[in-house]
Amino acid sequence: MFILSSSGTSSGEPKLIPYTKDESDRRLRLCSLITPILNLHVNGLDKGKTLMFMYTKPEIKTKGGIIARTTATSLFKTNLFKTRPYNSSNNVHTSPIEAILCGDPFQSTYTQMLCGLYERERILRVGTSFAYGLIRIIKFLKNHWRELTHDIRTGSLHPKVSDPSIRGCMTRVIRPDPDLADLIARECADDNCEGIIKRIWPNTKFLDVIVTGNMSRYIPTLDYYSGGLPKASTIYASSECYFGLNLDPVSDGASEISYTLMPNMAYFEFLPLVVRDQREVLVDLVDVEIGKEYEVVITTFAGLYRYRGGDILQVTGFHNSAPKFKIIGRKNVVLNIDWEKTSEVELQAAVESASQLLQEFNTSVVEYTSFADTTKIPGHYVIYWELLLPTKGYSVNLPSDGVVLENCCLAMEESLNPMYRLLRVEGSIGPLEIRLVKSGTFEEVMNHAISRPGASISQYKVPRCVSSKPIVELLDSRVVSTHLSPSLPKWNSEFVKF
């Protein structure tokens, strides 16, 4: 047996989660319900195939010699997944198990994409675990379509795909197909990505991706890439616990998605966000109220006791006696792009660490805020700084070449949690950016905030993360210089603390 290594979404630090065979079987049984539920809402799924990009991470060992795996890796390495049979209720994935188990992201993605292109007319659903991942897949296609079409045209395999098991299995897939290569080249040669998913995989019925919580920000981009295909967010799960299923999985937006919690997966309790008499009182599953928001607390069969995962849920109704929940977000999280979660405390510590580099120049950070810029792929953190300077102008004390502020960007990244640094190294997140703004900018931000009806200057606090378009535009209009992290932050593959 082994233990699970979480993604670190609760605190930024990956955790070791107890895991048993009974827990593994329980999760697999829950997952086995996904396709039957989808079949109730989408006709003909048994007539085609699924292009689902799936990945594993390298295993590590604790000092005691116990294997630690991510949740996805633990699933894909089970014999049940490896030997899963084809039948009318279990669609065949185009991705070979050899590609899924390959730990190299390029080799795995390239092989899965190549297989999906060969099967383009039989693909009925396209997906990844999360919305952001699918957007990165489309970018991968746009960046590597020349190599892919060359392989399809010649029946060869890219030399960078060197894994022997992949090369062995792909001998059964690869064949020369000049017509298919021409089609892919026509669709990918220009910069027009509108509807590219439907153009490449014309029979796609929906996208199989999670678009709830923070992933909802990527819905407009997915609509652009897919021509507005429905999105199916099928399961609500984490490393610590599999919570439940979406019994009405195919929808157009995150606001319509609710998950029905399965009482057999764990013992669920709920902490109301609005407490009475300043007391935090746990509420049982059957006692939650429609419309109210709660933080979920779990006691699992594998050994977690009253564990606060940090997810904020809102009750939307009931399926029989089981409550249905909409994911609102995560507690105390201010920034996230992919799997990482950065809290306000972490952001504050990173700013303080970086601002130490300014001391020799007789300046410091007066105020700051941030936002997650996802207009480009990969997305990246943007930090707005207003500096205290003894004289007017930003070039008097700081070197004009911007090296100091670039080093501040890197210092911030070095101070952020291991999951952020891992995703930076892997290329899922772009370089952190500091945008210097003019003196008085944050006073203008405050004036804008308190100008709204009901706002009070006595209650105003500088937001440490902004998403309002007018606020972002105001900040950008005051920017005097921009600076990007010059290199990747340090990251040790043995990042789990034992």
From TrEMBL:
List GO terms (cellular component aspect): cytoplasm
The GH3 C-terminal domain covers: 346-469
Keywords on this record?
Answer: Ligase
Q: Which InterPro entries match?
A: GH3, GH3_C, GH3_M
**GH3 middle domain segment(s):** 259-330
Q: What stretch or stretches form a coiled coil here?
A: none
| Molecular-function GO term, any one | acid-amino acid ligase activity
Family to which this protein belongs: Belongs to the IAA-amido conjugating enzyme family.
The entry's protein name is Uncharacterized protein
- Native species: Erythranthe guttata
Taxonomic placement: Eukaryota, Viridiplantae, Streptophyta, Embryophyta, Tracheophyta
